[in-house]
Amino acid sequence: MMQSKKTKFGFSSLSLAISFALAGTVVSSQAFAADEETAVKENVEKIAVVGSRAAPRSIGDSPVPVDIISSDDLKKNGSTDMIDMLVTSVPSFNSRAQPISDAATLVRPVNLRGLPSDSTLILVNGKRRHRASVIAFQGGGINDGAQGPDISVIPGVALKQVEVLRDGAAAQYGSDAIAGVMNFVLKDASEGGSITVSQGEYYEGDGAATTIDGNIGLPLTDDGFINISAQYKTADATSRSVQRPDAAAIANGDDLTEGNEFIQDPAQTWGNPEIKDDFTVFVNSGFDINDNTHLYAFGNVSSRKATGGFYYRNPHNRGNVYSVDGGETLLVGDVGLAENGVASCSWVGNVPANVGNVLDTPEYQAMVADPNCFSMNQIRPGGYTPQFTGKIEDMSFFAGIKGELGHWMYDASAGTGSNKASFGLKNSLNPSMGLDTPTDFDTGSYEQVETTVNVDFSRYITIGSLEDISFATGFEWREESFEIGQGEEASWIAGPYASQEFNIGSHGFKGFGPESAGKNDRSNIGVYADVEAHLTDDLLVGLALRYEDFSTFGDTLNYKLTAQYIATDELSFRASHSTGFRAPTVGQENVVNTQTSIIEGDLIQTFIAPPTNPLSAFYGGKTLEPEESVSYAAGFVYEYENLFLTVDYYNIEVTGRIAQSSQIAVEESDYDALRAAGVEFPELISAVTYYTNDFDTTTQGIDIVGSYSMDLFSGDAKFSLAYGWTDTKVDKFDEATTDLGKVRRLEDGIPAHRATLTWAQSWDDLSMSVRGNYFGEYYATHADDTSDWGSETADAAVTIDLEVSYAVMDNLTLSVGANNIFDQEAQKLKDGTLGVLGAVYYESGPFDYNGGYYYGRVNYRF
User: Fold this and answer.
1) Would you place residue 12 in the very low, low, confident or very high pLDDT band (cuts 50, 70, 90)?
2) Segment 568-573 mean pLDDT
3) How far apart are CA 761 and CA 53, in angstroms?
4) CA 591 to CA 393: how far, in whole Å?
5) Closest CA to 306 of 238, 253, 385
6) Which of 41, 190, 446, 511 is 20 to 30 A from 684, comparing alpha carbons?
């Protein structure tokens, strides 16, 4: 058996590879050399790509599955979004586009091994990454209510590699590591660099995107480095829309009325948001004080703006804006009643709205002739489709010192990170303000701030006949806060017409008022110990313990056991067992929002409230508790000549899983009790939803990662396979707060089977990469509608990606390619729902519903 070689600071390369920096220590660049001979000496697989060569992405000598994706591998994708890059590289990692999804449009939620985005711990250079401020209120079943980090701000140009630990690791790293850990390792070169310009668009001729990125390494005297990466992106919106039948009917009129000329075609755009001024800068630096002491610092500044669509507001029947009886009659406001409590509108009777065009009826024309009467049609005669705008600002900074004191290695660091999302609405109304309402609103903001301090120690010890036992221990203190920033008054105020049943606040996304604004925080401490030893030359075992104490809900103790047995030179077996937990985020405990939901094709206004809010508490809301998990995993690694194969089974039981409840209808019979509890205007709230420990689930699956290299067509060929089978069962749920459609989305909302097969071929100056992506059947839903009206089982599909690169000279490479080159169509909405809400495809598809995308890229290295 080949023994693990110790690094300069005393760690074994094996421990580093398994833990991505055992006890939080940043992985040494020496442990991941590009040269294959060096990699073998370090007892890890070759995990860096030289030129156009692909390589195995998993470490063989590890008791848990770890994927290594190089920076070059990430770039073999038309998208420059980090999420899209990883979806095609990691088995059981999924995400989807977010067309009309409120704040989830700004930060796409992801999931690993069938669990939500906040069940995967994200690290940068081995340090915990702060979570995003955005909570995925409409995140697509699995991610409903998730608040995970925003990994899309991390540009591929800044990375040396991405390391993905597909195994529960809460006992090692703490909360959020139930599904696994992803570590983004920043470049650390002290010389050279690159500039890349990419441009592409969809086959449909929209969504044009331009990306410019660059990287440069600079020496920091002879003993250090500073590596700077920057990226700038823009992307046009896409539209996969059809005219809504209700809008078309009003535009055409009927036998008694002329058509409405104010109707837009399409009335509602369904597609990707427009992205503007998307920039990010990452800096990584290090300095050797002496042979035993190393200083390091890294951080980022990022910002982007997005503008997306909302649902169309029908000018005849939109509730509490145009009508309160489902479109039978128009909602008419009385000016005098609002101003002095004395009715002054002389119009007597009703304005019928169940006609071709209400504007062309004599009743409507007589009503608006009286200045003391009005309807919102006078401002938006063709209805309206609000536009949701957002700006995401993200920053982080970490600094530390690591080195050697006698036999001990140490790493002390401190860092902070923040993510702020500022929201706005265009082309909307605050109906309760009547005709004095503005149409554009600043609706407020969310901000997440986290501060972390770590002190870690490790060394090798000998106990009896056991030598080189790896021992690590450490301490972590963390504080996080979630702040809601107040919106402008017009976005949340209950105007003078609220008592006449006109909706309160900016319609589509109500602004945050003074009762919602404020800051909540919590802190926690963690202490851990980690031991790993070879009991024999062929048997490696490990044990980790971690104790954490939270200021809000108490303490927890978790453990992890790992083992690897080397059966032959080619075959080894591995297994792990662990317990874990995920603390509810401060945002989930305190967030307030108003969203528009679809129920059987109808739009309803849903209020999202903290679980202890009087409205939530009235309908069963309770203080959130942490999720707890128990994980089991087993697999094997097979290596023979140019063949590399890992197969791993996992089983994750989660109890008290936190999720957003289903919409609970606010009943008229409850209005008086709700007012007594302090809820204002309950008659204007259709439904309420809140966060709750609703579910117990069991998720199991199989991940297969393989690669094979050979000489082919007078060149070098690499074949890579990544396959994932994921199956989730809901063992227990609360029928009072969860409907069966939500349960089915958790169980079947993502394909049970996912696979990518990649062929990378290279010659002297020419290289090619062909990737096939398989997506199995899944439960397709339209937005958040899980009724039979808006859902069905979608068919399996295959997409093909192709990229060809040519080295014009040693430092200049031209690339062209296409994602979904054969334009495989996403699942269309079924008959009866197609186009009803302006869409053609289901929102919940596992691959891009926009169709084929072609691109070109120029890369210059220096």
Assistant:
1) very low
2) 96
3) 8
4) 19
5) 238
6) 446
